[in-house]
Every structure is written in C-alpha cells, then in structure tokens.
Amino acid sequence: MAEKSHKGLYNGGLCLITDRHSCSLSVVEMAYIALKSGIRWIQYRDKGRSRLEVFRTSLALRELTRDFGACLIINDYADIAVAVGADGVHLGQEDLPTREARKVMGRDRIIGISTHNRDEARRAETDGADYIGFGPVFQTGTKDAGPPKGIDDLRDINRSVGIPVVAIGGIDIDNCCPVFESGASAVAAASSILSGDIHHKAGCLVDTIGRYRSA
After folding, report:
1. How confident is the model at residue 107, as a pLDDT?
2. How many domains, in total, are found in the chain?
3. Each residue of 102-161: pLDDT tens digit?
4. 44: closest CA among 56, 25, 29, 57?
5. Would you say the pTM of this structure is higher than 0.85?
6. Is position 114 annotated as part of the catalytic site?
C-alpha cells in the first residue's frame, strides 16, 4: 500500500488514466505496457462497465501494479478499491462525499478528488482529500469536463491549497513542463499516451518529466 506521504505517488510525476476509447487493447494490456515504459501510477477509469467487471479488472490491475511496485487508484468505487487492496480511490463531484469515503477507505488509503475551480479545490482539502485533480488544463476529447482552464487558473489553484495538485486534460510531451512550472505535483494523461505507440509515448513522457524535475 502507498504511504500517506505519497512518496511513491508523486516522485514519478505521471499518472496513466486508462481509457478504452483511446486504445483497442484491454485495460490490463495498456497498463502493462505503460508500467514497462516506466509509469508507476495507474488510475483505473472505466465508465460503462458493470461493478462486477470493474471489480474483476481491478483485481488484475492490483496484481500487475504490485509486481511493478506501482500505485493503483480506482475511479468512483471506494468499496471496490478497498476490496482489491488498491492504494486509493479517485472521486468526482457527484460521487461519494470525501468525508464518507474516508469512513470506507480508512486513514491509510489515498483519496483524490476531481475539481474544476477554487471553491471545489478548497472544499476537497477541508474535507480531507489527499490530493486533487484539476482540469481540464488544455483542450481534451477524452472526457467532457468543460472548457480548458489554462495555466493561469492552474497556478491559482496550486497557490490556493496545501495538498498536491494533479493536473489533467490535454497534457502531453509538448506542454507538460509549464504545468510543473505552475506548481503541480504531478500530471495525469490518457489519450496522449494511449492513442498510438503506448511504449514510445509513455517512455518519452516519463523521460521528459524526469529531466525537468531533476534539472
């Protein structure tokens, strides 16, 4: 299990969000390639599947990520995250409230919350979230999350909360560095990694982020 210090979660600075619509491979196959390419944080998002299907895939992903010493976060379902021994859960604004999710997750597991403005970000911190996702920073077709927020809004969010901010939305090898310059602790990506050669794209993004963070 990941420590609450998030040591393993943010050192790599990159999270792959699974997306079946961006890739013809299975979720487990795309995760395996990403892990082989150096990514150490997988967020399992799979809208439209039954809870049983999500549970079974989560079990497979837990075994896979454990083999790589990687973090596994499950979208939406706190109970499934606990049942499979995942490191945490990621919740949206319409999901189980953070305080209630903490009762399910316990103190040692991670809770992340999707946010789109300063009020949501501050509320997530007040309610006990361990990190927030903020976006979309840039234009993205992966998820209908509204218009892009831009770097200035991301910088404002980073200044407004004291917990880690994970930037999401249209982030790729060409624009990830300004995202980190704004103060973000990590970035999350889906289609920019999954559409095409996953090994090449994931590896390039891992290397780019690594060089920037070590400079």
Report:
1. 93
2. 1
3. 999 999 999 999 999 999 999 999 999 999 999 999 988 766 667 999 999 999 999 999
4. 57
5. yes
6. yes
Establish whether 143 is a catalytic residue.
yes
For the chain, how big is the Rg over CA atoms in Å?
16
Asked if the structure places residue 33 within a domain, the reply is yes
Domain membership of residue 118 (yes or no) is yes
* pLDDT tens digits for range 24-68: 999 999 999 999 999 999 999 998 899 999 999 999 999 999 999
179: nearest Cα among 58, 17, 171, 4: 171
The confidence score (pLDDT) of residue 2 equals: 39
- The residue annotated as part of the active site, out of 45, 102, 123, 149, is 45
Question: Of the residues 40, 62, 123, 143, which is catalytic?
Answer: 143
Domain that holds residue 65: 7-214
Q: Is residue 73 part of a domain?
A: yes
| Active-site residue flag, 45 | yes
Residue 69 structure tokens? 């010493």
User: Considering the domain boundaries, does residue 115 fall inside one?
Assistant: yes
Which is nearest to 208 in space by CA: 167, 160, 176, 182? 176
Out of 114, 185, 191, 192, the active site residue is 114
What is the DSSP secondary-structure string of 174-210?
TTHHHHHHTT-SEEEESHHHHSS-HHHHHHHHHHHHH
**Tokens 């403005």, residue located:** 117
Side chain identity at 54, as an amino acid letter? V
Q: Residue 205: its pLDDT value, please?
A: 96
4: helix, coil or strand? Answer: coil
For residue 172, pLDDT over 90 is answered with yes
